[in-house]
Amino acid sequence: MATKEGTWGYRERFGDAFGRTYFRRFGPGVASSIGVGTYLGDATEAADGRYRAALTAAFDSGVNLVDTAINYRCQRSERVVGEALSEADADRDEVVVATKGGFVPFDGERPDDPGAYVRDEFVRTGVVEASDLARGSHAVSPEFLDEMLDRSLSNLGLDSVDLYYVHNPETQLEARSREAVYDQLEAAFETLERRRADGDIGAYGVATWDAFRVPRDHDRYLSLPEVISRAESAADAVGTDDAGLAAIQLPFNVSMADAFTVEAHAHPTEAGDVSALWYAHEAGLDVVTSATLGQGELAGGLPSAVDAELSGDTAAQRAVNFARSAPGVKTALVGMGSADHVAENVAAGTFDPLGARAFDAVFE
């Protein structure tokens, strides 16, 4: 598991190569404000090889946070993360490893009949109840998450992960009420509190796409204050000293800045609502952003007014630095499917992000 001593030692080795605030406090230690995402890419051996080279290069050049999920590239992303960790010069206690559970994963490749695969491999074997599935492919039941965490640890070749996310819980809103989803999350959190007590995870979080950045009346909205409250209740039920909910993940970039601009979460002491980024920061949650490059679209260019305010030699670097500049953000995830991508993306960290006033001015 990543440790305070290990991550600070990593910072000491690489910190002088980067701009100010490149390394930021994260969990018990520090993490690079640019992290490696592993979502995109084909489920092929060729893509595995490119990822393995990219991940190893990233770990050995100043990136010490990697984000994956059991369903990414049919479990191949988790497996290649584990391989890269064993090949890199960086020690395990220097690297923050995050993965997720929620979507039913395929194994190695997409089956010809996904529905039959889910029934045969997950429902009929008792891994998940059919009634717990939303859209036929998503579940957050305690039994399912327990099994997925075990499989993730096996895929990664690790005894523990630093951060385990419940993956896109808003998917469950397509099958049940919002209150029922909060109840599901509380039950999931109880399971993760037990796994944290057992040393299998360092902390847990909630990774979302829509939930925390949409207005209250949106059909995929979830309240961040309520989610935090359910984590506190779960910790009380299990008997842990404090809740293990430590982070949230959501998309954030120039074109998807809703986590900063949409005020949909009740202020803890005053009337009115605040943004997800504001609330998470005040609640002490680490914020990790996804879709930093808009799945590649922003590498071709940013709106001119924003672009002019950012530092970086390329549009991709400036897009990365926009996400790193958002208040409360600890790490911006960037897909790095080849070693060529690593050099450009890591170099973004040699430039300083925007200050708070300059970032605010972009939205005026």
From TrEMBL:
Pfam families: Aldo_ket_red. Residues 34-212 form the NADP-dependent oxidoreductase domain. This is Predicted oxidoreductase.
